[in-house]
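Contributing new records

If you add data, match the layout below exactly. Sequence lines come first and carry their own label; structure lines follow with theirs. Keep one chain per record. Anything else will be rejected by the validation script.
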Amino acid sequence: MTAIHSLTLDVADPDAAAAFYAAAFGLGDRIRVREGQPATTGFRGFAVSLVVAQPSTVDSLAGTALDGGATALKPAARSFWGYGAVLRDPYGTIWKIASSAKKDTGPASREVDDVVLLLGVTDVAASKRYYVERGLPVTKSYGRKYVEFGTAPIKLAMYSRRAAAKDLGVDAAGSGAHRLTIGGDAGGFADPDGFGWAAATTAAPARER
């Protein structure tokens, strides 16, 4: 089965970024950094979603990120689907931290149950076909609105760029590089929206130069 092992983010200061991600989210080598900040404006077309068990975990992770210099796009709050927050980190990546629970049911923790790469794409149906042809297994699909693939340890999900921007609380406009490389075992390629994939192994270093 095709897997996504890591997400590499292009940043201007790899040492500072690596320290921030380790302290804020503690995801190990699933999040990597690389020196370089190609020109980009506005929405970069993706977010990293952290799915957790309960509101206190959302608050803990979001609080550490905010203390480290992140800004709130959507402050932590209850909604009809659960409890969550959306942040932009100091290096431009958007993070969505969410729980389906509206109340705590156990001791506070910082455990992340799932890491999901959320892509905002031009045509959900076309992107779904593209990835299915590359061997990615579909686990959820709602027509042209949303699709999710079983690519653990990091899941892949996509919805339209406009819907993604609305969900994250940002303007959909943007251009330039995504500043993201998806590391997996599907080979090296760029998808229809320009998201780049490269071969990755779980043994690769968390910081690249």
